[in-house]
Specification:
Layout lengths: L1 E4 L1 H13 L10 E4 L3 E6 L9 E3 L7 E6 L8 E6 L8 E4 L10 E8 L4 E10 L5 E11 L4 E8 L6 E9 L5 E10 L12 H4 L5 E6 L7 H10 L3 E3 L5 H4 L2 H9 L12 H12 L4 E7 L22 H22 L5 E8 L10 E2 L8 E2 H6 L5 H11 L5 E6 L5 H16 L5 E4 L2 E3 L10 H13 L3 E10 L9 H17 L4 E6 L25 H7 L35 E2 L18 H11 L8 H7 L6 E2 L1 H11 L11
Bound molecules: alpha-D-galactopyranose.
The site of alpha-D-galactopyranose has 6 residues, from loops.
Length: 651
């Protein structure tokens, strides 16, 4: 139910807040949804602007009460003049009104005299003393009043000096009206449904990605504790957040241009502390990537304006970076289980070619790594260094999106085969940012996805689904949730069918409202933490489990399926062939050479002698050396992804 928050109700809120010693404006008119509470709202009709201050000593803004006849909520407004920088403007001290761990919503009306993007932003200082700024929402004013629509935020215990403020793309005067800060309805995750990690405990880990900001609400923490036994830090371990530019520059100035400085940021700590305190294993994400890696990392003197460094220097930087990351984590979080790392992310394009060289900032397809190396030859080095410095037992992955597209699949198979031969790679990360669309037009189709699963598992490597989310059409509400549920269900059936080669399925997020694709509702839980049809679809038919209490003791998940020991070939014991000749490669003797032949042969090589009959064995001898072994399986796989067109070619 919706009701309009009129003066009388505002007075009640004022009384409630007054009893907490908190200021609240009693003269405002705001619309509240059921369960929301007004924390502070003002239409400035009383001329009181005392809740707002300028943003520190160097901010020149002058904040005063003013009037504007066109204002949306009475003529009284807050006037902001004398701004000398775009970030100058009025701020409100959030900690005076709000509590950590709670979700709030904020909105405001603004007017600028000419074209200006007006933004509601948030600032806070993390536990390290580093300030962070993020834009919550914005609207363009061209001399008219516009609303920066309601946007949610929350903060956690270890964030201090939390402010919400208004800024704009210019230094123009700003008019502000109808400021509304309210507590969002408090939701609890459902505790009478099974935890996903328990449902899938016999198969693989179930995980989620989370950023420090997303982790702030208590309810999100409870949701994670109930459902996930693997966490990926959404941004906090990426190079842009781990690299310390000043430290790097000091190294270069001291004559060590190949030495990198890294440090753990407060936001990473927020998540890692949570993982440590709750015994949740972590997927490291990501070491070597063209994106979210500063351009200066590839340049002389670690300055954006510098020349590109040479290959030798970049290799030194790569090693130093990987070593540094592993060291800072080992030093501070030796008790966190970093069980997997994405070593290289998104190096291949859909057509199987490498990226163009250049600055990611200028061209989203460009890679600084390719610029320096000329091609993707940096990849084996990354794995070599990761193997050298990663903790004992940590599995190393190549991670990518559109991993089901033919060209990319072919490139990944080729790369992974070479890395596997050197014992450098343990698995493939299938990001799996999928689109259900309206159902029948899903991209990829579940069958196309299965082909990719077949292909990567046939490599004899582990596979992890690392960033799973599956969107429905933009702003379509729950209209396609049943189709989404069906898609997720089919997908999870396929993943379970490959469970022996899959050690984790990780969703990219928690609830739809905080997803990076939030307008397309791609996850299993609604913004109010209730489970969507997709959740029910993926637990349907699986073993009954006793639900765990959210936030309570988490149930220790039984041993998950071990990833295959990827440093071994599938078999040590070559098998003598029978002298029957059929269609080479057609292991299952169905007349075609497909990935199914590889799967059957791998089963056979792993000891299931009933998997391939005599004729199939004769067909399997594709390298013609008279024994059936992993080389034959690999050649057939290469044939299937069109890396070779004929078995007489050297695989
Ligand atoms: C890619 C990256 C992730 C994340 C998502 C978008 O898939 O691997 O780290 O940035 O995009 O959120």
């Amino acid at each position: 139910m919706k009701h309009t928050f009129r003066r009388t109700v505002a007075v009640l809120a004022a009384m409630a807040c007054a009893s907490l010693g908190l200021p609240v404006a009693a003269n405002a008119e705001f619309t509240l949804q059921d369960g929301e509470t007004l924390i502070y709202g003002t239409d400035f009709e009383d001329g009181d602007v005392s809740a707002f201050s300028k943003r520190g000593d160097t901010d020149t803004s002058v904040i005063s009460a003013g009037t504007d006849e066109t204002a949306p909520d009475g003529a009284g407004v807050m006037l902001v003049t004398d701004r000398s920088s775009s970030w100058n403007g009025p701020q409100i001290a959030v900690e005076d009104y709000c509590d950590p761990g709670v979700k709030y919503a904020v909105s405001v009306w603004v007017k600028a005299p000419w074209y200006n993007t007006c933004t509601l932003s948030m600032q806070y200082t993390d536990a390290e003393g580093t300030d962070h700024y993020s834009n919550l929402g914005s609207a363009v004013s061209q001399g008219d009043w516009v609303q920066i629509p309601e946007v949610q935020f929350s903060y956690s215990e270890d964030m201090k000096n939390v402010y919400i403020y208004v800024e704009s793309s210019d230094t123009t005067d700003l008019y502000v009206d109808s400021f509304c800060l309210k507590a969002a309805k408090v939701y609890e995750p459902e505790d009478d449904i099974p935890g996903l990690k328990d449902v899938y405990a016999d198969y693989f880990k179930i995980g989620g990605a989370v950023t420090a900001a997303e982790l702030a609400p208590n309810a999100t923490k409870q949701l994670i504790l109930k459902h996930y036994n693997s966490i990926t830090l959404g941004n906090e371990l990426k190079p842009e957040n781990m690299l310390d530019q000043a430290g790097c520059q000091a190294n270069a100035a001291a004559g060590n241009p190949g030495e990198v400085a890294v440090s753990l940021n407060g936001q990473a700590r927020t998540i890692l502390n949570f993982c440590r305190d709750n015994d949740i294993p972590v997927r490291g994400h990501v070491l070597v990537w063209h994106s979210q890696t500063p351009g200066w990392f590839f340049k002389d003197d670690y300055t954006k304006e510098g020349e590109w460094v040479d290959k030798e220097t970049m290799l030194a930087r790569m090693e130093s970076y990987i070593k540094g990351v592993m060291e800072v984590l080992a030093e501070e979080y030796s008790d966190v289980d970093f069980y997997a790392w994405d070593v290289v992310n998104e190096a291949w394009l859909d057509d199987g070619s490498y990226r163009t060289g250049g600055m990611y900032d200028d061209n989203a397809n460009a890679s600084g790594w390719v610029q320096v190396f000329g091609d993707n030859s940096f990849i084996p080095y990354a794995f070599e260094y990761a193997r050298k410095y990663a903790p004992e037992g940590c599995k190393l992955y190549y991670n990518d999106y559109n991993e089901y597209s033919d060209g990319k699949m072919k490139a990944i198979v080729q790369m992974a085969t070479e890395l596997k031969e050197k014992g450098l790679i343990d698995g493939i990360g299938m990001q799996s940012h999928l689109d259900v669309r309206t159902g029948p037009d899903a991209y990829p189709s579940v069958n196309a996805y299965i082909k990719a699963l077949d292909t990567y598992t046939a490599l004899g490597l582990d596979v992890q689904i690392t960033e799973l989310d599956a969107t429905v059409p933009e702003n379509s509400g729950d209209q396609y949730f049943e189709q989404q549920a069906q898609y997720y269900s089919d997908l999870m059936d396929a993943i379970v069918a490959h469970k022996d080669s899959i050690s984790a399925v990780v969703f990219w997020g928690t609830t739809d409202d905080t997803s990076w694709r939030s307008t397309k509702s791609p996850l299993l839980f609604n913004g109010d933490y209730t489970a969507k049809p997709a959740y029910y679809a993926i637990i349907d038919g699986l073993a009954e489990v006793v639900p765990t209490e959210p936030g309570g003791e988490t149930t220790e998940a039984p041993e998950t399926t071990e990833a295959p020991d990827t440093t071994d070939e599938p078999t040590d014991e070559p098998t003598e062939t029978t002298p029957l000749a059929g269609k080479l490669g057609d292991t299952n003797v169905d007349g075609d050479i497909t990935i199914l032949d590889v799967i059957q042969l791998n089963k056979y090589l792993l000891g299931d002698t009933s998997a391939v009959g005599d004729e199939g064995l004769a067909n399997a001898n594709v390298d013609g050396n008279g024994t059936i072994d992993a080389t034959d399986s690999l050649w057939i796989l290469k044939y299937c992804v069109q890396l070779i067109s004929d078995f007489s070619e050297q695989g």
